[in-house]
Here is the input.
Amino acid sequence: MKALVITSLSGPDALKIQDSPEPAPKPGQTMVRVAAGGLNFADFMTVQGGYPGTPPPPLIAGREFSGVDEATGQRVMGYTQWAAFAEKVAAYPSMLWPVPEHWSDEQAAAFPVNYFTAYLGYWQAGMTMQPMWGQPPSAVRRSEAPRVLIHAVAGGVGTAAVQIGRILGVEMYGTSSSDEKLARVKELGLQHAINYKQQDYEEAVKNLTRGEGVDAVFEMLGGEHTAKSLRCLRDFGRVIQYGTATGKQPQLDVRALYAKSASVQGLWLTYLSQKPEIMEPAWKQLSEWIEQRKFAPVIGQVLPLDRAREGYKLLQEGKNYGKVVLKM
Here is the structure.
C-alpha cells in the first residue's frame, strides 16, 4: 500500500510516499480503508523530532483519518497514535466514530483531534453542559458568562473551540497573527479578536475585561506563554495546557498560582482517549450537536498526499486557517 513515511526526524522534507506492507491488525482491531487524513501540529512536531514517545524512523505519519471500516462497510472517522496517512490503517473500534451522513470524508478527517480536544478543554475548565466522570468542579459560579482565552484561535482546535464555546454561551477572546483570519473566526462566534503582532495579548485581555481576566486559557504554545497565560486569569482560573508549539518547555511561576488560587492542567488526548468513561460522554454530547447541525469542521486546505510536505509547512509557518486535510 502507499503510505506517507517519516524517513528521519529532520523536518517536512523527510516525508516520502513509499510502498509499505499493509498493517497486521492486533486482536480487537479492525481494518479501515482510508479516504482522508487530518493534519495536526503534533504531526509537524513528530517529523521534527519534538513529539514525546515517537518511535525511531522509518514510520508512517498521521494520527487522524476518515474512511470505511472493511469489516462493516460503515463510514468512520478515527484517531490513532501513528500510521494514519496510508491507504489502510488498523484501528480499535473504541477509537472509531460513525461519519454523519451530511459530512464529507474531508470534514470527517478534520473532526476527532480538534473537537475532542476543544470539548475536553471546556470540560477540564468546568464549563461543559453535562457532568462527566471526574468532572472538575467549577471553583466559582458566576452569574455572567464564563470567559476563555483561546490561543491560535484560527487553527484547527481554535476554530473548534470557538464553535463549541458559542454553543456553551462562553465569552471568547482569541489570538492570531492575522486580521484576515481573525475576521473569519469572528464569523464563527468569536467576540474579542486579538492580533498578537499588533498588541500584547496580556494587556489586551486586561483592558477588555476591565482588569479582571478570564476564567480559562486554552494554551498550546509553551515557553513564556504558559506564565503569561496564567497572568491573564482571574481568581480560581485555569490554564489548560495541551501543547508546546514553540518547542520550549512551559515556564511557570508557582507564586502566581497561589496568588490567584489558579491552576495549570494538562490535556493530552492520547491519554484521555484510552478512558471510555471520559470519551463516551464527550462523544454523546458532540454527536447530538452534530445531528442538530450546530457545528461543522472548518477546513482551510485539502491537498493530495503527494503534496503533504506543503501541508506540514503551512502549519510550520502558521499560514493555515482551520484544518489542513490530506486526501488519500
Remarks:
- The chain is about 30% helix and 25% strand.
- The first helix runs from residue 41 to 48.
